[in-house]
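Hi Y.,

Following your request, here is the sequence exactly as I used it, all 202 residues.
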Amino acid sequence: MKKRVLYIVLAVVFIISIILTFTIGLRVDLGYAEGHEIALVMGKEVQVSDIKKITNEIWKNSEVQKVEYWNDSILIKAREMKNEDLETLCSKLNEKYGTEFKLEDMSVKHTSNIKLRNVLLPYIIPVGLATILVGMFYGVRHKSAKKMLDLFKYIVIVEGLLYSIYAILRVPVSSFTMPIAMILYTSVILIYTAKLEFEESK
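Below is the corresponding structure, written out as C-alpha cells. Let me know if you'd prefer a different format.
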C-alpha cells in the first residue's frame, strides 16, 4: 500500500514537471541562455576571478572565462550589454590594468540560447545502450526479468526526480546538470548491484 501511494505521488510530480516544461520551459543559466558577449585582449596575464569582481559590479549576472589557452585574453558574457555598462567596464579595466580600452574597442556579439535537446543528444544512444545491456546482464545472471525491470524502474525514478527538481523548483540547467545526471545514473547501478550481491550472499 505504501509503495502504491509513493508511485502515485511520483507520477503526479513527473506529470507536473512535464506540464511545466511544455508551458514555461526549463530555466537555464547564463551559459545556455541568450545573451551578449565580448572578447578582450588584455595584453598581459589576468586572473578570471579579478575580472569577475569587476563584471559583478556592472551586471547582476555575468560569466568570465579565458579564451583558449591564452592568459591575456578573456571572454565576458551577460544577458544585456548597454553602452553605459561597456563604458564602465572600460573605465574599471583601464584603472586596474593600465589598459586604454574605449567604447569603440568593444565589439559586442549576440549569442543565441543553446537548445537543451542538443545537450541531451550525445548521451541518449550510449546511455540507452548501456542501460539495455546492463539490464539484460542482470536478467540473465539472476535468471529474473524482474531484476532487469527493477533496475530500469530505479533509474527512471532517480533521474525523474532530478528532472523534477529542475522543472518544479526552477533550478537553472547548467554545464553541471549532465555530469550530475550521469553520477546519479552510475550510483543507481552500483547500489543496485551491491544490493543484489548482498541478497545472494545471505
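The mean pLDDT is 88.

Thanks again,
Q.
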